[in-house]
Amino acid sequence: MQSKTSNFDVIVVGGGSNSLTAAAFLAKIGKKVLVLEKNAECGGGVVSMSPAPGFINDPHAVAMVTAVANPVIANDELELQSKFGLEWVWADTPFSTVFDDGTGLQTHHDLDRSCESIARFSHKDAETYRKFVTECREFLPLLLKGFYTPPLPFGGFIALLEQSAKGRRLVTAMLESCADAVEMFESPELKMHILKWAGELMVHPETKGTGIVPYLLMGMSHDFRMGAVVGGTGNLARALERCVLHHGGEIRVNSEVVKIDISGGRATGVTLKSGEKLQARDAVVANIHPWDLKEFLGDGIDSELAAVARKVKLSSHGAINQQIALSEPPIWKAGAEYAPSMLVECMQRDMNGMRQKFDEYKYGRMTRDHLSPLIAVQSNHDKTRAPAGMATLYLYHFAPLELEKGGLQGWDGIKEEVGGWVFDEMCKYTTNIDRSKILGWHIETPLDHHRHSKMMRNGDIFGIGTFTSQFFGRRPIPELAQYKVPGLDGFYLAGPTQHPGGTVTLGGRATAMKMMMDWKTDLRSAFKVI
Ligand SMILES: Cc1cc2nc3c(=O)[nH]c(=O)nc-3n(C[C@H](O)[C@H](O)[C@H](O)COP(=O)(O)OP(=O)(O)OC[C@H]3O[C@@H](n4cnc5c(N)ncnc54)[C@H](O)[C@@H]3O)c2cc1C
Q: Residues 57-110: pLDDT tens digits?
């Protein structure tokens, strides 16, 4: 798609789900918007691919909770669902664990059913879980209120929470770890089920400051249905693109931006890798990793501030992810009730083994011990994904970002071997799958993620770690948390390294909101929920 003019109100660097969301809101209020994407298609972590003819798999994001709680989806603020073709399949059972002895545990959207599943291991835990979820649901509105808007400064946020007993309990949870939080339960199986899921935050669950995750996870799982996009995750990006185009915006792919042009303390446009320069009248919005701010902004950012941003920490682990076309869907040894689950975790029934696996990643080790693959069979929920009787397989496993031997680059040499281990491990939990059922196989490692999106730095699927020091009004650092670089006008940040962070959050909504606040534009012209 070629740009028709060289003058735009707003240039958006990056066509990921966050920046497309920002672009869509800005186009909706009448700004002439241009989106520039490095890759051949927009989406970033919101894309689909085909490992074999007739199959639609998702190489990155597959199941979404944080996106569906955003008013963009919950209130259809951008008309993605009512006008631009976005459709969802909703999970009654978002997450299950199957153990190697054929037992299992399920989190259903329905609390009673979840408690029944837990009671198979511990009646006491079933009751504790019920009380815990009730508490999570009380916390959730507090947490979500500021999740899709510019964040409160961290100190103010904590001060606000400290004023009520409920808020103080939340602060305690924020300072503790996930592992501390699950100590309320007695059964190792329930603890493992929650901890492994909480590990999806890509932070070691024993890290202090992660204790809020189980509250968010469980509160959201029972209050919102986990969703997957009909026809593939990439259709979310297509709907956002349609919205941008409908409101007069333009999108150019294969257009990598290498520099933000600055004049008189103001962002005036961008320079592409091709050397082409494009101007923006009002603002530039950019996905720029905190480590790269100096490279893109030059004198536009204070050197000391850029040095602080360069010290932002990456997540504890990344992922090796496989897209496989199968001749038939997996049948779980644990029972037929696991097939409708959107995500299925395969795990040895060994708490210390699970904990040690998380430890391995910090030493850069990827061994065959205690593998625990996470699986999604989207074709079980969405018949458009695979030919009749066949199945898509999303096969995901945590992995170190930097290997002890070979660093990040070392992944190319071992990707097939490690991918094979994970596949073979998963087969043990099924009655019918082995390598003869594979019709197409595509593997992506942290190195591939790094190559795919500049925001997935060193394979960090969330850009940077979600530690308390880099969360809420401190993401990525307090000085940059309001989507702006101090001293630089007309420039805004978007992406997973900004609040609310990683996962598909459609958090570009908050960037657009901040811009409109600066422009003193009536927020009601764009947002249904303020
Ligand atoms: C393997 C994997 C599994 C995941 N699973 C889930 C899941 O199940 N659920 C979930 O919610 N989330 C999941 N995620 C995370 C989710 O995909 C990301 O958090 C999300 O995509 C971040 O969106 P974004 O738009 O901020 O950044 P990205 O998706 O990284 O998009 C950024 C875009 O900007 C472009 N770009 C960057 N710099 C430039 C430049 N200079 N010039 C032009 N273009 C540029 C990139 O090419 C990219 O297209 C997963 C991610 C991975 C990798």
A: 999 999 999 999 999 999 999 999 999 999 999 999 999 999 999 999 999 999
User: Which is it for strands 250-252 and 33-36: parallel, antiparallel or unpaired?
Assistant: parallel
- Name the token pair of 74: 């919950």
Partnered with residue 320 across adjacent β-strands are 397
Which of 200, 323, 453 gets mutated to test ligand 1 (max ligand atoms within 8 A of its CB)?
453
DSSP label of 456: S
- Helix 17-28 × helix 508-519 angle, to 10°: 40
Q: What's the total number of domains in the chain?
A: 1
Q: What is the Cα–Cα distance from 363 to 382, expressed in whole angstroms?
A: 39
Kindly state whether residue 116 falls inside one of the protein's structural domains.
no
**Tens digits of per-residue pLDDT, 9-67?**
999 999 999 999 999 999 999 999 999 999 999 999 999 999 999 999 999 999 999 99
In a domain, 272, yes or no: yes
The DSSP output letter for 70 is: S
CATH assignment at residue 467: 3.50.50.60
* Residue 237: half-sphere exposure toward Cβ, Cα within 13 Å: 25
Pocket of ligand 1 (CB under 6 A): 13-19, 36-39, 44-46, 60-64, 66, 256-257, 287, 319, 321, 449, 453-456, 461-462, 495-496, 502-504
* Protein residue whose Cα sits closest to atom 4 of ligand 1: 61
Domain extent for 505: 7-46+229-313+461-525
Token reading at 3: 């740009």
Matching residue, tokens 């401190």: 474
Q: Which two tokens stand for residue 266?
A: 């103001």
pLDDT reading at 3 higher than 50: no
Q: What pLDDT is stored for residue 1 in this prediction?
A: 41
Q: Is ipTM > 0.85 here? A: yes
Would 61 be classed as within a structural domain?
no
CA 252/CA 331 separation, integer angstroms: 43
Query: Is there a domain that residue 186 lies in?
Result: no
Q: Which amino acid is at 317?
A: H
